[in-house]
């Protein structure tokens, strides 16, 4: 599982986007046609100097910070197991919906809201990353 893409060119699936998600997002970035990322696959994208791992699972799309907190393993290269991604280097586990480590409390990676509109996959960047 996993691949690497430079800059926005990614994937499909749906996650319900709330009004809170939209309000917090400073900018929605159009990544790729929604059917470009097959279900069960993941890809890494670089946006504004940040690596982001995007996953298309049975329950839609998920986007997390691209690197594991331990030794910066590429999360898009990890296996997805029951709503979690397992880092390919040392098996640290992260919840795809929340970014929280599931094998140890108190640590998490950033999560980016996703949405599919008019056949395109979008990812929301927080205010601190806009304009890069």
UniProtKB/TrEMBL annotation:
Keywords: 2Fe-2S, Iron, Iron-sulfur, Metal-binding. The keyword Amino-acid biosynthesis does not apply. Gene3D superfamilies: Rieske [2Fe-2S] iron-sulphur domain (2.102.10.10). Residues 28-123 form the Rieske domain. GO terms for molecular function: 2 iron, 2 sulfur cluster binding; metal ion binding; monooxygenase activity; oxidoreductase activity, acting on paired donors, with incorporation or reduction of molecular oxygen. Pfam families: Rieske. InterPro entries: Rieske_2Fe-2S, Rieske_2Fe-2S_sf. This is Rieske (2Fe-2S) protein. It comes from Actinomadura geliboluensis. The lineage of its organism: Bacteria, Bacillati, Actinomycetota, Actinomycetes, Streptosporangiales.
